[in-house]
Amino acid sequence: MTIALVIVASLLGVAAAASGLGKLAKKPAVVEQLTGLGVAASAIPVLGLIELAGTIGLIVGIWVAPLGSAAAIGFVLYFLGAVLAHVRHHDKAKDLAPAAVLFVVSIATMLLEFHR
To answer: Which residues contact 48 (CB under 8 A, 6 or more apart)?
Structure first.
């Protein structure tokens, strides 16, 4: 279980870090997509910081189980919100897919955290 947890948590961490850095850098495509979903431009860096904090939580959580569990739960909620935002705006599957995949990976990470 531990090897699977490290692999899945690392994949989620890398994806979330890349996403968070894109938000912090205010990449035009990211800003356009998020503002199109109704996210205030001033909230975009905050979302990026949340993703980076979660990534740190996952990494440290490999050794400190409660932190890893908390980070995984946080990502489940974060990406659930992202999926709901895309669904609410009737986005096409290609726009919804990244959030949906990360939501599923977050759930897998959370379950692995709980079964270590």
So the answer is: 19, 20, 21, 22, 23, 24
What's the whole-model pTM score? 0.94
Q: Which domain holds residue 42?
A: 2-114
Torsion of CA 41, 101, 73, 36, to 10 degrees: 20
Domain count, the chain: 1
Blockwise average pLDDT, block size 10, the chain, 116 residues: 92 98 97 95 98 97 96 98 96 93 98 94
Question: For residue 18, how many other CB atoms are within 10 A of its CB?
Answer: 12
Asked whether 105 and 58 are in contact (CB, 8 A), the reply is no
What one-letter code names the amino acid at 114? Answer: F
Q: Which two tokens stand for residue 69?
A: 């569990």
